[in-house]
Amino acid sequence: MALMPVDEALAAVLAGARGLDVEMVALEDAHRRVLARDLAALRTQPPQPMSAMDGYAVRAADVAAPPATLRVIGEIAAGRPATMGIGAGEALRIFTGGVVPAGADAVVIQEDTVRNGDHVTVNESVRTGRHIRPAGVDFREGQVLLHQGRRLNDRDLALAAGMNHAALPVYRLPRLALLATGDELVMPGTAPAPGQIVYSNGYALRALAEAEGAEVINLGIAADTLEATRAAIRQARDLGVDLLVTTGGASAGDHDLVKEALEAEGTQIAFWKIAMRPGKPMMHGHLGAMRVIGLPGNPVSSYVCAVLFMVPLIRALSGMSDPMHVREPALLGADLAANDTREDYLRAHLARDDAGRQVATPVDSQDSSLLARLAAAQALIVRPAHAPAAQAGSSCIILKLPL
Asked: Is residue 14 located within the same domain as residue 126?
């Protein structure tokens, strides 16, 4: 079977992936959720002209030739509009957020005035509109300010609150089941017997998935038997999860049973093996409504494939309009040999040169089992298939790893 190019594999993983069911959630619970429809303002902000400063509401014409003394006829605080307007030679004391009274067309800041009883002397002229926030300067009722497919950040929540929304329509969070395979795996804190290794992949995968908003169900470690692997796959299907992610057992050895077990349960395999390094033995398919991603067992391969494929799929199922990773330019910090037929994702350190430019230097070993190098890396250098040799200082493309 020919190896599938990475871009084709990613297109296959994302094919038909879209936001799940829509639900209403309280504003305080909507952080990092994805809007399911456009959101329009329910009010105009500010609803009336308001003062941007503490000072005096005046007519600009009255203070055009300072010093000018005006009679103070009252006071306006935020939330307590005046019941009267001002006429010629009059002023109203006003505080930030106060509604500008009828007749006033400017606010003089208090630092430019001297108060004496019920009179104030203005020592600086002001232009019409000075220190006044016009009605609707922020937004107007009916204006669409947040759009479907947007993942809501902290500032978006403040905006939604200002728009007077107490609850928001968002897509349901994807449910993901995580399954490890391998008789050699033991849990952290265990004393491994000869030939055993401590299970590590699931901790990174769970963190990646939860950071993207997925609800993760841990199915544990399945023994290296067809029956045990099939039983775990059925458990995921019966739980009604949106995505099953397996790790290990995806190669072609006698004990690599995941593909066989998936097919025995009726999974339609879209691809198996892709033209990338690390991560060649990765698979994807569908078991009814449940999507399946089969990750390699080597820790680096598992993690890199999860970043490249699992994360965008979770984002798409969460309803994000653009689930793709942002790739950035950088300069190489070391020479690289010509590439072969597989797309390379090299773990790399990031730094800045004297000109402030981003420099990516590959870690000293790219072996797919080395967790310490993976943990020390901040980015992946993306090398296309058949890329020619490149010298230090030449341009490259990187994908930053999560912080």
From this structure: no
